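Researcher: Structure prediction, please.
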Amino acid sequence: MSRLRVAGVGFLNALPLTHGLADDPSIELFLGLPSEVARRLNEGECDLALVPVAAAATLGDVDFLDLGIVARGPVRSVVVAANEPIERLEHLALDASSRTSVVLARLELAARGVRAGERGRVVARPPSEVVTSIGGSVGGVIIGDPALDIEGRFPHVLDLGRAWNERTGLPFVFAAWAARRGSYTEALVDRLRRAAAEGIAAREEIARRYASQRGLPPAGFVSYLRDSISHTIDERAEQGLSRFLTDAAEAKLLPPPDVRVIRTARPEPKPRASLDALLVRVADGGRLTATEGLRLYEEASLFDLGLAADAVRKRKNKPDVVTYIVDRNVNYTNVCTTSCKFCAFYRPVGHDDGYVLSREVLGQKLQEVVDAGGVQILLQGGLNPNLRIEWYEDLFRWIKATYGLGLHALSPEEILHISILEGLDVPAVLRRLNTAGLDSVPGGGAEILVDRVRRNIAKAKCTSEEWLSVMRAAHHMGLRSSGTMMYGTTDTAQDRIAHLVKLRDLQDETGGFTAFFCWDFQYERGTRIASGDHGTVLYLRTQAIARLMLDNVDHVGASWVTQGPHVGQVALRFGADDWGSVMFEENVVSSAGTTFRMDAARIEDLVHRAGYKAVRRNVKYQHLGEPA
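Model: Predicted structure follows.
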């Protein structure tokens, strides 16, 4: 029989809950950061998870067992630390590995009128860098064991467990054992209770072993597990959980609560909202859980999805206006080391058909853009190991000096490639490229941000977290970017929803995505993977659900390049407010046989025939004239 896959948090406060499971041969136990535990539950890589409650709320359709990590007063291990008084903070550096702690920090700072918790004022850092980021008007949200390590180091500390308790009078639940609704069995509940009882009884032993491993006195850790942390979600703690999830939903930080605490393996069935109720809520600006989004994607009628997406589009943008941009997609090299199975464009290093465009050829292409009144180029290519960072810097400076065009350039995959090739961290690469002329970052290489899918379609491709981390670094530098999704390879509907949630979560943090575009995989000879789900109806459903899920992204573009101009017109009624770009050329999709082309006059004619005004824009979606 297969073993039960259990994911638990590796922090000291969680060890009593997993202590009794470690040597059980029937259990495959993983311990890691809260964010990785949540990812495993979300992407079906575990059966049961000790998951941050905010991550479970984002997922939806989850039951909590009444065992978790609870603070009934000061918690010590979730704090905002600063050198200046908390009230003076302007920015937050944070360890984003626990969404619960991040949301709680924002709520508590907002309650105190501190702007540092607002979107755009928050900078996620690796856990090791959060502490070193603290200084001046920058505070840090420090969670888990690192928070215990810095006790007494900073003059100003806001203990978030204490802050919540003093403001609400209620305990705070940070995490709980969670599983998909209805999947608990009596045997599993009994096993988790016995493990928790064993771990709670062994708290002092666990704390002493933890202290010994770090060469530290045990007394502080013993008191932490005994006095600061509770592992039972009683009725008062459940009230605190409900209050937190409700407050976070009202602040538009989480969807409306769709989780519950159970005390038996066979609770009463929980009624689900109707599809109509979900559509009305999201059309009015409410947030969907991943489970709710999947229900609408799979079950709602095409026209109901379109009506709801159109309502969101009209609420977020001028209802009678469609934007477009005059730019050019330039693929500067087709040499690539990633070997994506879905790509007919790339050539391996040393192939006779491999190329790097010369300045002469590039100059001709760029001059055509200038002559057509264009404002930027979209510059992307393969991962060519012969092109070093100085080549890109020289190219960017030449383009800026000679043609004055905006540079929407280099996907996260390319930036990460340069980082590895040069032995520089991603922020350093971005700073150098930005100084040379980089204006914004396109969303290429995202495909589906689920690692199982990414491994299937391209084993050498960066992970989903690496792609997101490049975008995070770009956003924190002030560079805007687009979010994208290419579906229809080996991905499922659930994978696509998970992808959208990851983009939404990053947008909550940074606000750096200007727009979203999606398209289906274009299969043709030269690709090495069979086509999955595709077609016009699926495209319209996918664009509509993206418009509904991405409540914090302002713009959605119609993918006429892959679907054709007339489907592009229909897409304007399914959530799209932007037509994208004129198409001087396109090499990646066209390598698979899709070759739609269009100039500005044709775009405006199609937009007018669809019943809208048209206006040119720049990469920041600022209008470059009056709609007509």
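Model: Residues 187 and 265 are 9 Å apart (CA to CA).
Researcher: Thanks, that helps.
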